[in-house]
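Example (one chain per record):
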Amino acid sequence: MNDFLARQHLFLPGVWLDGVTLVMLTLVGFIGLVILRFSKAYLHGDPGRPRYLRWLLATLTAVMVLVLSSNLLVLALAWMAASLALHQLLTFYADRTQALVAAHKKFLVSRVADLCMLGALALIGAQVGSLELADLHAWAEATPSLPAAMHGATVLLVLGVSLKSAQLPFHGWLLQVMEAPTPVSALLHAGVVNIGGFLMIRLAPLLVKAELAQTLLVLIGTTTAVVAALVMTTRVSVKVALAWSTCAQMGFMLVQCGLGAYSLALLHLVAHSLYKAHAFLSSGSTVDQWRTRALVAKREPVGLGRWWAAAGVALLAVTAVGTVSGASPRLEPAPWALAAVMGLALTPLLVRGAGGGWRRLATVGLGALGVAALSFTWHAAFGQLLAAPLQSGEMAPRLALVIAGFGLLFVLQAVLYARPDGRLARTLYPRLFAGLYLDEVFTRLTFRLWPPRLPPRAPHGRPSPVIETLEA
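Predicted structure:
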């Protein structure tokens, strides 16, 4: 552990410099530059552009301070500052009621998360006597088992991260912020919402000894990922589908942290940020592509037998790649479990490839092998950047929960795709389209406790125009 701390030695007071910091700074700087350039053209001629640019730069600055900080209190304050600056961007169009409602819900959820974070820091400071990351890591390494107060601190950290990562049932605001400018959506989905995963990676030496917190991460993440992935298949709007995808991806990132696969979580964070930035900034062309595909004649549903066969082939491919790479399922069970989930995720590609002839099937099959190989390769590469301690505690229950949850997701998706007019589809589809009504319950409770300030009603007693949510 001393060697580990030596590599993280602070070159400047208050700065934590390691491989993770460099990766995150590069990521934030690159995405921030792209969004800044896009914003200048997107808001050209808008009188509010100077105000928008000020708050955008304030958000990016706060995120960079968060990434560089070696002190947990500074990190938490920077996260709050990023959230408050982002709030100004979400309410950029003050006459759009839907934007104000979504921003209000996010504001309340974020403030509860802030309280959880501050409570966790108070407990950590009382136990460790310091909020410096180096002191906390050294204390965690020297402590065989965590006291009850530190278990409470880790649970509060998990709750705070879950709230800010749009996990169910506090996810509704993420689906309804589309009334903000498109680059703001890209900044939120590609940057700010990923901070929770970064914090879990920073605190890996502490979290690997907190079994309750890890189990909570796996439970929350698996539930959100499964539900969000199912709901996403019912979306018509491209941007809303991307928002549900972000919920699912954040859930999967928490699962990776809960299983101790912090190098995979870091890889996931980088890949998700780049993908979502591109997806939102190119959402206009995505709509055109979707319309073009809609003109193509739809194929007949594929039978369940082909789904099971494709799943078997995908899992065999992942197993073969993992074996060749030398990864040991006994020493590192978490990456293998997550690789199995990836194999199930690749199954739809094989199913579609099987219906396009042998050449198409071979192309898709080779692509699946390539994705599996890249996953294990990048896992090894990012493992060199992140000197996280080995996983401790009993992992079998968490692995069983992940395999059961994502196995259920695969079975439901296969049945729904193979039998779109069946009884299960007719029963689930309306409820999934409504998001299981989770956000409606949360919104009613939120508005009852703290209603938002909305624009005044328009003349002649008519309500002010409301831009309806894009879920229709």
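Caption: The radius of gyration is 23 Å.
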